[in-house]
Amino acid sequence: MTELRQANGRCPGTQKRRGTLLPILFSVLWLLHSGGVMGQSVTNSGSMKGEVLVVDATGRSYVPGAVILLNGPINLETASDVAGHFAFPSVVPGTYTIKATAPGLETEKSITVNPGEAIEVSLELQLSKTTTDVTVTGSSADADMSTTTQTIEQKTLDDAPNADQKFETLLPLVPGVVRGPDGRINMKGARSTQSGALVNSANVTDPASGGPAINLPIDVVASVQVVSNPFDPQYGRFTGALSTVETKTGDYNKVHFSIQNILPRWRSRAGTIAGIGAATPRMTITGPLIRNRAAMMQSFEYRFVRTPVNSLPPLERDTKLEGFNSYSQADFTPSSKQTATVSLAVYPQKLDYMGLNTFTPQPATTDFHQRGYQVYVQHRYFARENTALISQFSYKTYDVDLNPQNDDPYRLLIDTTEGGFFNQQRRRTTRYESVETYQFAPRQLLGSHQVKLGWDYAHSELAGVEAFRPAELVGASGDTIERIEFSKPSAFEVNQNETAFFLADQWTVSTRISFNYGVRIDSDTITSSVHFEPRAGVLLSLTGDGKTLLKGGAGIFYDRVPLMLPRFTDLPDRTVKLIGPGGQVSSSTAFDNRIAGSLENPRSTTWNVELERQVTARLAVRAGYENRVTARDIIVSSIAQSQSGVIALSNAGSDSYREFQVSGRYELPRAALNGSYVRSRAYGDLNDPFLFIGNYPQAVIQPDQKGRLSFDAPNRVLFWSDIQGPWKLTFLPVYDVHTGFPYSVQNQYRDYVGPRSSERFPRFQSADIQITRPFTTHFGHKQMHLRAGGSVFNVFNHDNPRDVQNVMESSNFGHFYNDAWREFRGKMVFEF
Predict the structure, then answer these.
(1) Cα 717 from Cα 446, distance rounded (Å)
(2) Which long-range contacts (CB under 8 A, 24 or more apart) does 183-188 make?
(3) Is residue 614 within 8 Å of residue 620, measured between CB atoms?
(4) Rounded (5°) CA angle 352-358-364
(5) CA contacts within 13 A on the Cβ side of 112
(6) Using one digit for the tens of pLDDT, what is the confidence trace for 603-652?
(7) Residues 6+ apart with CB under 8 A from 391
(8) Of 146, 151, 101, 150, which Cα lies nearest the Cα of 126?
(9) Are strands 423-439 and 388-404 parallel, antiparallel or unpaired?
(10) Residue 611: exposed, middle, or buried by beta-carbon count in 10 A (0-12, 13-18, 19+)?
(11) What is the reported pLDDT for 820?
C-alpha cells in the first residue's frame, strides 16, 4: 500500500491530515445532535395540513401530485396525495411562505404558525406565468404520472456541495445517475449521447455528437429534473433518460442583485503557492422592466479552473479551463391570457490539455475550443382557463476546434504517451427548431380526458474538416511495433430535417385510477424513415387514503442520428503496418471506412413498475423496477483480412439496462433525510462510435465486443440530507458509495485480452459536505444579505483512483493512479 501511495503521488502527510479531520467531523455531528435537542426542548411545534385544488366552471377539483414548499424558519417539502391533501406534522413556529406548484399551475401565500397550533390551509392553484408545459386536469396535474421524475430544487442547488458550481454536477444526487470514468454524466444506464437534455423545453444537445452542449450559470437555474422513462409522447429523439432544466423567472416587482466567488482560489503545489487554481466570479441581476408586465434577468459567469491529475508532476498535472457564460432572459405578461419568454445563452470556452491522465502528459493532449449561443422564444396563450397554446422557437450554434499541442510524432508507449495528439478537427453546427403544442379543455367521457397534441420540426447542419497524423505503438522492448498512417484530411457537410407529431390523453377514471397514453410519429431525412412510438402508463391508488400508489408504464423510443455519423465514409482512411524486430514492415493492411447497409435510428423498448407508500406522516418509501433494451445501436468495428480491411459503422449493436431501486425520505422538524439503494446492470456493445470519431478519438480500433458498459455500477448506496442546524447553520452532507467501474485488459498492441470489462476499479466511496450561514447587514441605505460557508469534498480522504495501468506488459500492470484527494472550498454570496 505504501508503494502504491507513492506511485499515486500522495503526500506523506495524508494519513496525518485524515486523523485531524475526525475531531472536526465529530464536532459537527455533536452540534447537529445538540441543535436538534435544543430546538425540540425550547420549541412547542405546530402542525399544518391542507388541500390543493383548482376552481373552474365545473366546480372544485382536487390536484394530486402537486409540490408544496414551506419556506421560513425551516424549509420543508411534500406533495399532495391522490385526494389532493398534504400535511406537515411538525412545524417550528414562525412566519412562512407556502407555495404549491403543478404543471401549468401555481399559488403562493404567507402564513404564520403559532406554538402548538394546528393550521388548515386551502391552496387554490392559478395559471402559471413561468411554466413551459401546461397541464390542467379535473383531478390530476401530473402529465406523466406513470414514470419516475426526481427533481433537484433550487434550495438543494444552493446548499449542496458542488465542486464545479454547475447544475450538471448535482445530477448524481438522483439514484441511478452516476458520473462515469470519463467525467460525463450517465443517466439510468445510458451514454450521454443517448439521453435527452432540455432547458425550458428547448433541445440543448450538440447536433454533431448528440451530447449535452450548453453551459448555464447555476444562479439562473430554478430546478433540474431527471425523468427515467418519459412516456409522455411530446418527448422524443433519445433512447435513455431525460434531463430538464427550468430557469428562474425575472422579478416583476423589485430589483435583486447578487455576486459571489469574487476571490480566486490559489493553486498549491508541494506546499507552495504556484499561481491561481481557480477564479469563477458570478453576477446576476433581476428586476422589472415594466412593473407587473415585463421583467428581466441577466447573469454573467467567468470560469478559470485548473483541475489536477494527482499522479503527474506538480506543475505539469493540470488541465486549464477558461470560459465565459452569459444568460439573458426577458419575461412578459402582456395580458391575463398571454405570457412570453425570450432568452439568449452564450457559452464560449477553451479547455487546454484535454485528455490529460496518468499515461498521457500535457504535450500529448489536445486543446478543445468551443463557441456557441442559443436564442429561445416561447409564447403561451390561454384562450380559456383550461386550454393552452404554446409556441416555441430556438436557434443554436455550437462550434468546436481541436488542436494538438505540437506536431511531433504521436507515440503510444506502455507507460506513457509521447509527441503531439494525432487528430485535429474543426466543426461548425447549427440547429433551429419550432414546436407547437395545444392542450384542450377537459372532456367528460367515462371520466375526465385531458388531450394534448403537438408538432415539432428541426433542421440541423454540420460542416467541418478533420485530419489525422501518423500514430505509433511502442512495445515493452522500446521499439516501434505498429504504425498507423492516414490518408489526407477531409472536408464534409451534412444536414438533417426532423419532423414529429404527437398526441396524448390523460384519462382520469376516478380519484383511484388514471391512465395516460399517446403516440409519437417521427420522421428523419438522414435515415429516410418514419417511426411509430406508442406509449402508455397507469397510476393506481391501492388505498382509499391515497398513501399507497402503484404506477407503471411502457413505451417505444427512437434515437436521433448525430450528424457526425453519416459523414463517416468521408473521414480519412487508415493503413496499419506491423513492424518487425529489425524495424522492417512485416505486414500492411489498408482499411476503408464504410457504412454497413443504411443507417437506422436506434430503438429502445422500455417499461417500469413502481410502488410508493407514505408510511407515516414523516416517512415515505418507494420501490421500483425498470428495464430498457436498445436495438439497432450504432457501433464501429474493425474487420481485417490479409492486406485489406474495413472499419465498419453499422446498426449491429444493442445494449440493455435494468434497475431495482429502493429509496426513502424521512422528514424531521429541522432536517430531511434521503436514502437509496440501486441494484443495476448496464450491458451492451462497447465500441461506441464517439470513442473513435468524437472529441477525443482513440488511435486503435479493435473488433467490437459486448460487456459491462464503462459506467456500470451494480451496487450503489446514496445518502444525503438537508439539515437546519443551530445558529442558523445549514448542513448538507452527501455520502455516495458504489461498485468500481469496469475496465478491460490489453496487450502492447492494444488488443483486448480475455473478456471485455472483466476487471474493476476499487469501490468508490466519498463523503462531501457544505455548511453555510446567512447574515444580514447594511450597505449604505440598503440591506445586504450575505451567505457564507464552505465545502469539504472527500471528507475521509478515501482512495478513489481514476486511472489504471491495463497493459499486461507493463511492470505496473494492475496499479491504480490519480485518486481524488480531499479538497476544501469556501463560499460567499452577496445579495442586494
Answers:
(1) 44
(2) 184/211, 185/212, 186/682, 186/711, 187/226, 187/240, 187/241, 187/242, 187/243, 188/226, 188/228, 188/240, 188/241, 188/626, 188/628, 188/657, 188/659
(3) yes
(4) 45
(5) 1
(6) 999 999 999 998 988 899 999 999 999 999 999 999 887 788 999 999 99
(7) 378, 379, 380, 381, 434, 435, 436
(8) 101
(9) antiparallel
(10) middle
(11) 87
Region of residue 818 (left: phi > 0; alpha: psi -120 to 50; beta: else): left
- pLDDT above 60: residue 151: yes
Helices within 44-178 (DSSP H only): 154-159
| Listed residue (206, 221, 493) closest to 370, CA to CA | 206
Mean pLDDT of the chain: 86
CA 82 – CA 269 distance, rounded (Å): 57
Strand partners, 603: 558, 631
Which of 11-20, 51-60, 297-306, 743-752 has the weakest average pLDDT? 11-20
Q: What is the model's pLDDT at position 552?
A: 92
**Residues 212-245, buried b or exposed e (16+ Cβ, 10 A)?**
bbbbbbbbbbebbbbbbbbbbbbbbbbbbbbbbb
Please state, in angstroms and rounded to a whole number, the distance separating the CA atoms of residues 602 and 207. Answer: 16
- Asked whether the beta carbons of 573 and 594 are under 8 A apart, the reply is no
**Contact criterion met (CB below 8 Å) for 29 and 23:** no
Size (the chain), residues: 832
Among left, alpha and beta (phi > 0; psi -120 to 50; other), residue 727 is left
Where does residue 246 fall: left (phi above 0), alpha (psi -120 to 50 degrees), or beta otherwise?
beta
Q: Which residues contact 492 (CB under 8 A, 6 or more apart)?
A: 462, 463, 464, 465, 466, 567, 570, 571
Distance from the Cα of residue 23 to its chain's centroid: 35
Asked if 28 contacts 731 with a C-beta cutoff of 8 angstroms, the reply is yes
Of 681, 664, 668, 647, whose CA–CA distance to 723 is shortest?
668
Q: Which residue has the cell 442559443?
A: 374
Give residues with Cβ within 8 angstroms of 588, minimum separation 6: 575, 576, 577, 578, 643
Q: Does position 199 have pLDDT exceeding 90, yes or no?
A: yes
Query: Sign (positive/negative) of CA torsion 162, 188, 523, 437?
Result: negative
Task: State yes or no: pLDDT of 128 exceeds 50.
Answer: no
Three cell numbers at 208?
Answer: 454533431
Degrees (nearest 5) of the Cα angle 311, 768, 280? 75
Q: How far apart are CA 567 and CA 463, in angstroms?
A: 10
Give the pLDDT score at 135: 26
- Mean pLDDT is highest, among 97-101, 425-429, 728-732, for 425-429
pLDDT value at 386 more than 90: no
Contact 710, 740 (CB under 8 A): no
Residue 143 pLDDT > 50, yes or no?
no
What are 800's three cell numbers? 478513489
- Per the CB < 8 A criterion, the answer to whether 580 and 494 are in contact is no
What share of the chain in percent tops pLDDT 70? 89
Nearest Cα to 498, choosing from 521, 468, 477? 521
Region 519-527: what's the mean pLDDT?
Answer: 95
Residue 546 sits at the vertex; the CA angle it makes with 545 and 551, to the nearest 5 degrees, is: 150
Output the nine-digit C-alpha cell for 348: 464560449
The DSSP code for 732 is E
Grid cell digits, residue 297: 434577468
The identity of residue 660, as a single letter, is: F
AA letter at 474: V
Residue 527 phi/psi, 5-degree rounding, is: -95, -5
DSSP code per residue over 231-300: -STT--B-SS-EEEEEEPPPPSS--EEEEE--S-EEEEETTEEEEEEEE--EEEEEEEEETTTEEEEEEE
With the C-alpha atoms ordered 571, 572, 576, 579, is the resulting torsion angle positive or negative? negative
